[in-house]
């Protein structure tokens, strides 16, 4: 028999535990807030690199407004599509969308495009502090300028300190319209988009500007005048760097100032110091700089193209010590961009990244063994004369019904039901163009066992032209992964994994695959939904360089109908939540 006092004590204990739980939640996410935004997406005239063009803007601004929130907050974006003739979706790059996979903003995968004139309300929790961004994920709308920053401030203490911060979103820009670019990519003969006309820092660049000829304008109210970073001496600043480039891989440097890398894709890393940093499309970093140089001067901040043979002027802006005139140019030349094809140097930077040793739950080491390993061979091929990128010889062509709905409601006609290949032929020689230049197109899905650990080995190869293999940064939606290894040449099953780092491998959502090499990532399939995993170079995704993964979709109880009313689900009644 339990005495009254014991019962009371038990009750007290339970109540006490409940309050402790609330306190812990409160400490993890003090005062979570709901942050509301109203956005209109429309095309406007703008001069990102001093040449007027049309860009896809949000609320009349390019880049779109920066979202700032605190970890634990809910972000609500009421988006109205004011484009005249095309749908739109926005992907929140790096946000986990745990429990809200229909808010991931990927056309054909997580939702239907929002039609012209329609409004869709994105609602999601930003549970992890970090440097993120958002961008269009329909057609090549990211190349058209549809992007902006998303900064999630930490709700608890961070493993480093700083006095001030700047946000730097990097992109590349073409004068040729995105529609023309898309036509070229699917034309026979193929017309490549070529290298960007300009690089942009926070949407600002200067086409072909020459310091020698004095044609760069560092001051003024023009839309292309650089975003200058004004600093006080002897302070520590956090630079939040993110790259949403369509094509360019970049090397970034701040003249005379070392950078200490502390964050990658919203994950703390073991700090390390560099003179310059490599950043590929889809990645983000935080670096700390100390303003400990001569405060009577300004210093160059530069970003230049690497990884492909460059044909674009280096992007420049200034680190401006507050007592110096903001437009006063440094007497010295801007930092030299390392050789574009110095892949040894790029790999050495990638190898420096390590997960921080002060482990938090999110940064624990990966499970030692995967349940399944999928090998994805990246090749350039032909399909009916068009140039495509293919994964295990299948080039991704997205269906009209979003996978999230077709998997959940078992609409078997919505996509190819046969599972895509897990690997590629043993005899495939990655050092030469494919013996069979042709690929097929398809839209099958890799179905992953819920809560299983999955390895994906991304295997690079020779493209269609001899002696050519390119850089491909692969981005995974809905998850972070551990980058467990990089290697040159072909991944050898049973051997290559012996070198995996399962101790302090960096946690990320984007990983670069180097020419003629492989990159292995490991993740736990614990986020119910359908998720894109693809090369983040916009023309490459457009040419089919991606796969779709899905896990635990049958666990999703209620999916807002508004996300999925198209294709085979077009008849779904309005204002209904589908579930059960
Ligand atoms: O996808 C691409 O196509 C071109 C080239 O391979 C064919 O012209 C290029 O450089 C790419 O990255």
From TrEMBL:
Catalytic activity, reaction form: 4 L-ascorbate + O2 = 4 monodehydro-L-ascorbate radical + 2 H2O
Family matches, as Pfam families: Cu-oxidase, Cu-oxidase_2, Cu-oxidase_3
Protein EC: 1.10.3.3
Subcellular location: Secreted
The keyword Oxidoreductase belongs to this UniProt entry's keyword annotation: yes
Single GO molecular function: L-ascorbate oxidase activity
PANTHER family to which the protein is assigned, alphabetical: FI03373P-RELATED (PTHR11709:SF394), MULTI-COPPER OXIDASE (PTHR11709)
InterPro entries: Cu-oxidase-like_N, Cu-oxidase_2nd, Cu-oxidase_C, Cu-oxidase_fam, Cu_oxidase_CS, Cu_oxidase_Cu_BS, Cupredoxin, CuRO_1_AAO
Domain of life: Eukaryota
Cofactor(s) this protein requires: Cu cation
Organism, scientific name: Trapa incisa
Top-level class of the enzyme under EC nomenclature: oxidoreductase
Gene Ontology CC: extracellular region; plasmodesma
Subunit comment: Dimer.
Family: Belongs to the multicopper oxidase family.
Limits of the Plastocyanin-like domain: 41-155, 166-321, 436-552
Protein's UniProt name: L-ascorbate oxidase
Translocase in keyword set: no
């Amino acid at each position: 028999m339990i005495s009254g006092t014991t019962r009371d004590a038990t009750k007290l204990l339970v109540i006490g535990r409940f309050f402790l739980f609330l306190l812990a939640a409160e400490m993890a996410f003090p005062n979570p807030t709901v942050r509301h935004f109203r956005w209109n997406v429309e095309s406007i005239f703008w001069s990102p690199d001093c040449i007027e063009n049309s860009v896809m803007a949000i609320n009349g601004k390019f880049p779109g407004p920066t979202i700032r929130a605190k970890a634990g907050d809910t972000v609500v974006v009421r988006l109205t599509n004011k484009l005249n003739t095309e749908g739109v979706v926005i992907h929140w790059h790096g946000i986990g969308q745990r429990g809200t996979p229909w808010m991931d903003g990927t056309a054909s995968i997580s939702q239907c495009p929002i039609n012209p004139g329609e409004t869709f309300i994105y609602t999601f929790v930003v549970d992890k502090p970090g440097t993120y961004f958002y961008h269009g994920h329909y057609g090549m709308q990211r190349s058209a300028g549809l992007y902006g920053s998303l900064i999630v401030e930490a709700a608890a203490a961070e493993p480093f300190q700083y006095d001030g911060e700047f946000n730097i979103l990097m992109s590349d820009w073409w004068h040729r319209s995105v529609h023309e670019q898309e036509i070229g990519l699917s034309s026979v003969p193929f017309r490549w988009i070529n290298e960007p006309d300009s690089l942009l820092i926070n949407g600002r660049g200067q086409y072909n500007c020459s310091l020698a000829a004095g044609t760069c304008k560092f001051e003024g109210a023009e839309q292309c005048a650089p975003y200058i970073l004004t600093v006080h001496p002897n302070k520590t600043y956090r630079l939040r760097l993110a790259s949403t480039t369509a094509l360019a891989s970049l090397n970034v440097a701040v003249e005379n100032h070392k950078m200490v890398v502390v964050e990658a894709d919203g994950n703390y890393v073991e700090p390390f110091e560099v003179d310059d940093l490599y950043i590929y499309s889809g990645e983000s970093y935080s670096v700390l700089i100390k303003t400990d140089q001569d405060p009577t001067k300004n210093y160059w901040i530069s970003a230049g193209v690497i990884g492909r043979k460059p044909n674009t002027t280096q992007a420049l802006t200034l680190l401006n010590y507050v007592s110096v005139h903001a437009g006063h140019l440094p007497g010295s030349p801007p930092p030299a961009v390392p050789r574009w094809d110095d892949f040894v140097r790029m790999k050495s930077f990638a190898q420096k990244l390590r997960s921080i040793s002060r482990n938090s739950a999110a940064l624990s080491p990966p499970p030692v063994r995967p349940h399944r390993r999928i090998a994805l061979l990246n090749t350039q091929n032909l399909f009916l004369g068009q140039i495509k990128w293919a994964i295990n010889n299948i080039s991704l062509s997205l269906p009209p019904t979003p996978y999230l709905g077709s998997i959940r409601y078992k609409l078997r006609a919505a996509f190819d039901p046969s599972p895509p290949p897990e690997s590629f032929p043993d005899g495939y020689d990655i050092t030469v163009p494919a013996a069979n230049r042709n690929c097929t197109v398809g839209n099958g899905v890799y179905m992953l066992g819920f809560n299983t650990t999955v390895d994906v080995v991304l295997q690079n190869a020779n493209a269609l032209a001899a002696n050519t293999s390119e850089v491909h940064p692969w981005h995974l939606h809905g998850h972070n992964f551990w980058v467990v290894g990089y290697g040159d040449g072909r991944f050898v099953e049973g051997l290559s994994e012996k070198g995996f780092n399962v101790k302090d491998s960096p946690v990320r959502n984007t990983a670069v695959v180097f020419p003629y090499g492989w990159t292995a990532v490991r993740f736990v399939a614990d986020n119910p939904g359908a998720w894109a995993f693809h090369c983040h170079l916009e023309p490459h995704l457009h040419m089919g360089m991606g796969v779709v993964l899905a896990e635990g979709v049958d666990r999703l109880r209620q999916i807002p109908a508004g996300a999925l009313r198209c294709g085979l689900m077009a008849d779904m009644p309005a204002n209904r939540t589908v579930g059960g």
